[in-house]
């Protein structure tokens, strides 16, 4: 009986804590159906007086000649290649560090891990100068090209730890059956790495999708703006900000991340739980 009471108390605590965490998102969603006067009115109620989709319709039109449809397309053009190349490069580099012996392996791995401690504010100026000399400013190359060359050490480290958790007997058995190193990776190890792969893809998708600072630094043309820059531009476009439209478009921009997380949360949680375990 005491165990059941403690369990009920835990459930109640988790429910209340969950409501506190989700409340801002719920308020944002309901506020997108209100008018500016209702949002900032004295008698501000939690529920809108009248549910209206006007903020979504007007907000989608954007400001000027570019709509949020254009911003969505631009964001997908940036995010999808970045995620795919990040996953592919992290798998290859992580596989190399976890399964092969080569000169200066430990030193190179230590250098890669040490770059995790570098704050973005320290490297943003050298990156800007480098990309300017390469002629990559006002394009998506500053995001896509580093992903091709595994320039995200967190994801490489995650894959290394996951590969180390897989027994090497699998490699030896496959090698005796005539598989080379690439086939061992693609046929044997990669199917077992779905949780880690989903974790890398999900993290990179959310981080790149929500990135505002780097997009602001490297992208200048409005026609290439991502959703985050489009939201910021909507705040500057008019003297009187239509907050109902801003909130409506904010809801629209976070929907893909939420949908992707819920569809892949099984693999995501499993990947985070098993990463770092050695078998």
Automatic annotation (TrEMBL):
Subcellular location: Cell membrane
Organism, scientific name: Paenibacillus contaminans
Membrane topology: Multi-pass membrane protein
Residue ranges annotated for the ABC transmembrane type-1 domain, each copy included: 72-264
Family: Belongs to the binding-protein-dependent transport system permease family.
Stated name of the protein: Carbohydrate ABC transporter permease
Record GO cellular component, one term: plasma membrane
GO terms of biological process kind: transmembrane transport
Keyword entries, A-Z: Cell membrane, Membrane, Transmembrane, Transmembrane helix, Transport
Transmembrane residue ranges: 12-30, 78-98, 107-129, 141-163, 184-207, 246-263
């Amino acid at each position: 009986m005491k165990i059941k009471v403690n369990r009920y108390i835990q459930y109640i605590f988790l429910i209340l804590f969950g409501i506190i965490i989700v409340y801002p998102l719920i308020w944002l969603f309901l506020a997108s159906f209100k008018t500016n006067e209702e949002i900032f009115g004295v008698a501000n109620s939690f529920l809108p007086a009248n549910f209206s989709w006007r903020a979504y319709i007007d907000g989608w039109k954007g400001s000027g000649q570019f709509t949020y449809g254009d911003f969505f397309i631009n964001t997908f053009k940036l995010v999808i290649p970045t995620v795919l190349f990040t996953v592919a490069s992290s798998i290859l580099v992580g596989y190399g560090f976890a399964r092969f012996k080569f000169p200066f392996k430990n030193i190179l791995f230590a250098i890669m891990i040490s770059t995790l401690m570098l704050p973005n504010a320290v490297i943003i100026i050298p990156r800007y100068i480098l990309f300017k000399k390469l002629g990559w400013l006002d394009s998506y190359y500053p995001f896509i090209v580093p992903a091709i060359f595994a320039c995200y050490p967190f994801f490489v480290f995650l894959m290394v730890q996951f590969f180390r958790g897989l027994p090497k007997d699998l490699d030896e058995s496959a090698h005796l059956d005539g598989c080379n190193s690439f086939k061992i990776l693609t046929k044997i190890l990669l199917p077992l790495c779905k949780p880690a792969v989903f974790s890398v893809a999900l993290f990179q998708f959310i981080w790149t999708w929500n990135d505002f600072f780097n997009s602001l630094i490297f992208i200048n043309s409005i026609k290439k703006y991502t959703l985050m820059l489009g939201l910021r531009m909507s705040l500057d476009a008019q003297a009187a900000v239509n907050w109902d439209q801003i909130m409506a478009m904010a809801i629209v921009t976070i929907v893909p991340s939420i949908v992707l997380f819920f569809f892949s949360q099984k693999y995501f949680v499993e990947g985070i739980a098993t990463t770092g375990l050695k078998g």
